[in-house]
Request: fold
Amino acid sequence: MSRTSAGKHGVSSPRIACVDSGSDRAKIGRDELAGRYDLVPPDESDVIIAIGGDGLVLRVVHQYLRLRRPIFGMNCGTVGFLLNTYQPAALIERIEAAKEVTLYPLQMRAKTIDGKVHESLAFNEVSILRCTRQQASVRISVDGIVRVPRLAADGVMVATPTGSTAYNLSAHGSVIPLGANLLALTPVSPYRPRHWRGALLPHTSVIEFENLDPRKRPLNASADFKEFREVVSVEVLEDRSQLVKLLFDPDHSLEERIRAEQFAC
Reply:
């Protein structure tokens, strides 16, 4: 790998790690990068290249969060919302010119019916969903004030701005622009209150969910792809002590894609 001058991310000749999703297409992409650049393990890298789809980016974010390495994704999946186009040529120059986006996760603290407390982080959303044919019955409080005494629905979620274009969007929740400092509180298939379709909350909010009938109407709680069964209460708040930086080509910005989702037909 040829040496480069220091760019805006503060590294010279950045050491590149590469993680692929395991699909045939992603493996071929990784082999192509290995033929062009001197790849190193993530612990020794300056930047991590993620080759795959959006699910892989989330897994890489969680797995290597402790390293605080920027992540440059290249799409070898389907939607590729969190990734750049796959193009192995001029990768060093792309990394140096890339625009940084800082993401902060949600912290979920879930108490299960056996009295145990489980904690996990979510960069997309925390969701509370029914796990039987019975509707969920949930009390929702925000900053200690009961806002929905009883939600009858398939479930409810809290989404970050990046997560607002994922499951939240399919549940008809609001799309949140990056930098808006908001969270989306969105019900899933609500029955009562009939006309409540969710809320936008300050990112400093503490949201609490209480299962009003845990024996008859059990619920599962998920933070991204980590799930806990039979929860009786869940607390969600933004954790600004944790962060990840994603890198995007200047002409392929995440901010513009999130904005465009508000006008998609």
